[in-house]
């Protein structure tokens, strides 16, 4: 974990534990198990992890929508337990679902949002006009939101979260469902907000490319605990050598492992099987030699395979290395599980 001082953190979370009590015949669920981290001010901070890792629970606690069972957190200098109103005044939150009214125009949505945040009518009009211009929505400002594209509506959601000039902005899967062009436009806007507005942005995402492109720093969470934290480049540099990936067809895990066990220079071998497909992933210092040897070993063992690729470390490789499975194939933990896959 990077060495940070609490005074420099827009968010400071310490030893967060969240236990959801079970009911009849249902065990308790430990969603967070001692999670702690610090988010520096004015940075884009990525929170990564599979479904069930604790990302949503963490966000709910930091935005005062839930309280921890134990541990604590400060957001923009305010304690989430003792000063929830001050925390809410200092943050903006964009959930996965749209927060704007489709019947109203873009201008009306932003003016109402500003008035609800305490602005007078003049301030609300001024703020709405500025935000619509900043987000490229000025020409569509008088149209009902129901006529907007997905990308336009998502930009309006972000604008609505900024009407009160928050210090910290939480974005929960902001580009899910957007086409590549709209996603790129959203990425550009998030970077602008962090750079020009000195806004701290907390981003949860399932897109590794998005995390790599946007985040100044990343925290990888699994089963309610912090696994590793650092910049994307630091995390990728921690994996020496190259990665080798092979798409498998109707594989048997033990058969695949036995086949590649004698390949020289191959390490950190992971075999994942999902239905009739699977993936072999490994690391090596000499990809050119390893790829040929892996292909020969699989052929000799009669194992069917498709695409074979070698590359420098990516965030997918970081995730695979530290967590032990790919992003989309997280094993289902028992409800009361508190362990860490690492």
Largest sheet: 6 strands, mixed
Task: Provide the CATH architecture of the largest domain.
Answer: 3-Layer(aba) Sandwich
The rough form would be described as globular
Radius of gyration from the alpha-carbon trace, in angstroms:
23 Å
If helices are DSSP runs of H or I spanning 4 or more residues, what is the number of helices? 11
Number of domains: 2
Classify the beta-strand content into a percent band.
25-35%
Order of helix and strand elements from N to C terminus: EEEHEEHEHHHEHEHEEHEHEEHEH
Q: Find the CATH topology of the largest domain.
A: Rossmann fold
Distance between the termini: 15 Å
Unreliable parts: 1-5, 329-342
Helix proportion range: 25-40%
The count of strands amounts to 14
Helix- and strand-based class?
Answer: alpha/beta
Strand order of the largest sheet: 6-7-8-3-9-10
In the CATH scheme, the class of the largest domain would be: Alpha Beta
CATH superfamily of the largest domain: P-loop containing nucleotide triphosphate hydrolases
Averaged pLDDT, please?
Answer: 89
Q: Your description of this structure?
A:
This protein is an alpha/beta fold. It has two domains: 10-235, 3-Layer(aba) Sandwich (Rossmann fold); 240-312, ACT domain (Alpha-Beta Plaits, 2-Layer Sandwich), CATH 3.30.70. The protein is 33% helix and 27% strand. It has helices spanning 55-62, 84-90, 106-116, 121-134, 150-160, 180-196, 208-214, 232-237, 253-260, 287-300, 315-323; strands spanning 9-20, 29-40, 44-48, 70-75, 78-79, 91-94, 168-172, 200-204, 217-222, 225-230, 242-249, 267-274, 277-284, 305-311. It has a six-stranded mixed sheet with strand order 6-7-8-3-9-10, with helices on both faces. Helix 5 (150-160) runs parallel beside helix 6 (180-196). The protein is globular and about 75 Å long.
